[in-house]
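COMPLEX REQUEST
Ligand: NAP
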Amino acid sequence: MIQAKGYAAQSPETDLALWDFERREVGAHDVQLEIQFCGVCHSDLHQIKNDWFKGIFPMVPGHEIVGKVVKVGNHVKGFKVGDLAGVGCMVDSCQVCENCKEGLEQYCLDGNTQTYNGLDRTGVPTYGGYSNTIVVREEFVLHISEKLSLAATAPLLCAGITTYSPLRHWKVGKGHKLAVLGLGGLGHMAVKFGVAFGAEVTVLSTSPSKEAAAKALGAHHFVVTSDKKQSDAVKNTFDFIIDTVSAEHDMDFYLGMLRVNGVHICVGIPPEKLKIHPFALLGNRRSVAGSGIGGIKETQEMLDYCAEHNIVSDIEMIDIKDITNAYARMLKGDVRYRFVIDIATL
Ligand code: NAP
Ligand code: ZN
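STATUS: Structure written out below.
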């Protein structure tokens, strides 16, 4: 076994702390990374706190992983020692079902294996990127360009693909009015992609202080949702809302901002169920949809697109010992716009 160290939550009630654990040996089809940076996703906090379901503890979170390849198995063809590489939210899937064959491993009919807080296909718990090293089968390792800042690339592995994938699926672009609901890690990437794809982008935010930053990210308009005059002015206007909100919110209020045939795309995962009155949907023949991360092929496509168009995340780098404070700030919506852990501080 490979000796690894990381930051783990021993239970939902305890702060993360240093923890030594083991990774599997590098198999014939595996790639081992030395992790250099890992993004901090709101999903990390949801899972530590058992917001969605009972987690597997100790839990080493982290699914926005970038680093250097330090070892490859005998049958690995696509990576060599020294390459930059990344790992996102999944580390395995059945690879044979119709969804996997279509490159939609996130919807694997046998269930994908999550990078942490999951069990691998032999029943062993998976541990994420708040750690110094990880071993992953080649098919789930991504190529990372040398052109971009490595630390600022890390959040593309979750926040990036989770917003890129639905915008591509619904072909959001020129001629569309896109609203980005919630300007956090996912939201700020949705703004960047929406603008890059040619949409007219409005940020819907609870934080008036984010206006200047939203405009600097490329957003064309900014609406403070608690301001009645501002929110009334955007009723019946958007073709799409991409909803990145991590907490309970009034769906009917936001649905009212969609024009005829508008689509409200849920990517945020609040702990509570969504409540929607049918009137909010049938009024303008509106739809509510959802989207989960993205498949491996599309994640590579997104990374290549970002390298070509010089798109990275806006980050605040932190020491791993400051993770508890970072979570507290994230809960208050006080992140500009993604914390990234410098794993050298582990
Ligand atoms: P984040 O950085 O904390 O951003 C969430 C933003 O939502 C906040 O910055 C805030 O923006 C807004 N917000 C928070 N509470 C709100 C409330 N009660 N009402 C309205 N707006 C509120 O989180 P993130 O990392 O981007 O993740 C967002 C959500 O996506 C999480 O639930 C996460 O688990 C989920 N997620 C889903 C997938 C997927 O595959 N679908 C993948 C990754 C993450 P303002 O200050 O602008 O209002
Ligand atoms: Zn995530």
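REMARKS: The first helix runs from residue 42 to 48. Residues 41, 43, 63, 89, 158 surround zinc ion (ligand 2) (CB under 6 Å).
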